[in-house]
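Reminder: ligand-aware prediction takes two inputs, not one.
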Amino acid sequence: MSITSKYHFASDNTSGICQEAWQALEESNQGYHPSYGADEITAQACERFRDFFETDCEVFFVFNGTAANSLSLASLCQSYHSVICSDLAHVETDECGAPEFFSNGSKLLTARSLLGKLDPTDVERLITHRTDLHYPRPRALSLSQSTELGTVYRAGEIAGLCTLAKGHGMHVHMDGARFFNALAGSTSSPAEITWKAGVDVLCCGGTKLGMAVTEAVVFFDKALARDFEYRCKQAGQLCSKMRFISAQWLRMLTDNVWQTHASRANRLARRLAEGLGNIPGVQILYPVDANAVFARLPESIKTGLKARGWQFYSFIGGGSRLMCSWATTEADVDAFLEDARR
Ligand SMILES: *Cc1c(COP(=O)(O)O)cnc(C)c1O
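Here is what comes back for the chain with pyridoxal-5'-phosphate:
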């Protein structure tokens, strides 16, 4: 088996486009439609989001997560504000300063995270330890759901953090690059783990779910969406052939397609963790709430797996990170486990 035909556990964005999204692309590749989101498919997709979240929200589509996070945070903050996030947050570690750039300088303040989650006590300390005008004023709290360590905040945990933030006049942003995996791994409804808990804006991940080049920015607090389309346009994030993006979303949010793919990824991650956990010397580092497995692998196992062409990262979260996606199969997981046992 060549390396490229072997499943890549390195990330959930190494997979291709799922069948439903691909079909939606094909079906929308007919005739002529108004451009820049003025088409009927886009209107329907936005309406579908409102049904999904059971509320009247504003929805925008951009090309990737870095843009979704940066532009939405910029709409919550002035340049002299700050954003509180986890020290492991993608906005801090993997966006090349884009949140600061697009907000014209809002500073990210990082808090320690426990299993990838923010702790209210640490957040409160960061908010209150300076209140003078020489320090950037905390204005947004950013949570990742699921977290960078593959854990999922429960509705109550989100509500606690949101209440704290709002008590200090802050807005709440959720980086949901893997929102659907979190949702599939949760007993709460889409509304319950977002706006009902106090989230103001959600960056809702399409790419890792199995779609082509899109993330949705969902404003539950519609006042914060003011002029957001101008930010998107200026940043080069307004798609002229928007219907191709919208058609995919419409399809993914119909007949629970999102759930089929997200649940599969989560289920295979659990299978992988269970199998790895039974191998002597392997330690599973964090609860597998979504589609990520973090494991401490003995050096001999790690080297052996890499020699057999398995792709995964060993620099995130203090162990080896193994991501499952919509495309992972039982056979992929079992073949990986078999090679790990050798
Ligand atoms: C993948 C990911 C993103 C989005 O990254 P892009 O490469 O910009 O699409 C954002 N947040 C988290 C937590 C991610 O894992």
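The mean pLDDT is 96. The chain is about 40% helix and 15% strand. We will return to this case in the review session.
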